[in-house]
Amino acid sequence: MATVPWPARVTSVMENRSEAIRGIVGCLVVAVGGTAGVLAWTPYGRRGIFGGFEGESEWNVLWLGLPVMVLGGIATGIALFALLRGKWRSALGAAAALAGLVAFGLAFDVLAGPPLCGPGC
Q: How far is the C-alpha of 79 from the C-alpha of 96, rounded, in Å?
């Protein structure tokens, strides 16, 4: 087994360390994006689940709205991280995923709260 000269070993260790740092920062970006999505969902969730006319709840806010908001926050974080790193294709893919989530949210009205009046409006 041939030994690798000293400078080549140092650069390979440094590349692995920089890759590890990029991975950690990427995980932090995803965690912050998911947290931002939950925080953005909270007013809709509170109003949709606990508010409304005569205590009527809209559970779609929980079952559809929460995942859409969390995934939207994650996709936004990934897109921004990719843009900062200069990875245009990855940023475009994350932006396309975000656009798909927005379209899904608008189509199914996932953040609509309970009706402000009873069923006979």
A: 9
What is the reported pLDDT for 72? 95
Task: Return the higher-pLDDT residue of 110 and 113.
Answer: 110
CA distance 6 to 43: 58
Q: Compute the distance between CA of residue 14 and CA of residue 92 in angstroms, rounded to an integer.
A: 29
Q: Three-state SS for 66? A: helix
Residue 30's nearest CA partner among 67, 74, 65, 68 is 74
Sign of the CA dihedral 56, 59, 65, 71? positive
What's the pTM? 0.76
> pLDDT tens-digit profile of 64-82?
889 999 999 999 999 999 9
| 62-85: b (≥16 Cβ within 10 Å) or e | bebbbebbbbbbbbbbbbebbeee
